[in-house]
Amino acid sequence: MGDRPTKRKKPSLAEVAAIAGVSISTVSKVANGSADVSDVTRERVDRILRDRGYVATKKRRGSLTPVVILARDMHSPYSLDVIRGAVDAAGPAQIDISIALYPNDAQDLGWIDEIQAAGKRGVIAVTSVLDDAQRARFDAHRLPLVVIDPLSNPDESTYSVGATNWAGGLAATEHLLGLGHRSIAMLSGLPTAMASRARMSGYLAALNMATDDHEPPRVIPGDFTYDSGLEEGLALLSEPEPPTAIFAASDFQALGVLEAARRVGMSVPDDLSVIGFDDLIIAQLASPPLTSVRQPVDQMGAAAVETIVALLGEATTRPRHTELATRLVVRHSTTAPRA
Which residues form the signal peptide (predicted)? Predict the structure, then answer.
């Protein structure tokens, strides 16, 4: 019997976008037959899609469901990964994604009215704090809303998508304990952020459950940023007896700690072990490559689209809060402490 032909894997929109030299949203528009793409670009993307076995869905733009993603920062790796996941999921779901920045004056509810007036059928908000008045305005317009990684605890009426932050904090700290560290400090994120509090709780739980002796827990407030990691890292590492390991609430904070260690003449990981959180591309590019807790950020974007689709279909069985699993990715910034 002859070998069966190998079925070619359907390319992701991100792969096609990279080959064509266009944005993911442009590929999604071409694949779904949207009108607002130039003929030259459409022909180039169509050719790449056909060559790779992708059959585009020829639908007019008006037959797609318009949904807007609200982001705080269009340049952060986190936001870009969320958007990529949402756009990849949007095509098969017949969702037309547009992207907008939060307004400078979010308290002026007119921006919500503008979303409704523009014909949007749903809203995905990335790391936002929505107050009661804003949620009420979305409800008044019957606009389904899904919040990704909410900064504050979502109320019972809000649909949200996040990650298992507590489990991630636990895994990071248990990894350091397993290497033999007994003096482990944590640089937390924004004290008001739900994800930061959950990661800190996981850190505290791991130390509380540890059977070996260790130094008391030590949490240093921060704000997820590189500058926070650098400033607090310098303060910690300049102490007479600095910790042998630091768990940072974000990869950016962890990069700040790496720079702090360099400035005080400490080697990572020989003198200091460092763990970040998120596992963005910057973690892989760090020197040394950073051990980090991976959030499935692109999958969170896809899950938000799936939730919007369910809400538009008036599904009532969708869980209010979807949590996707984190996992520890061990690289070269952690090792056993010096004897």
Answer: none
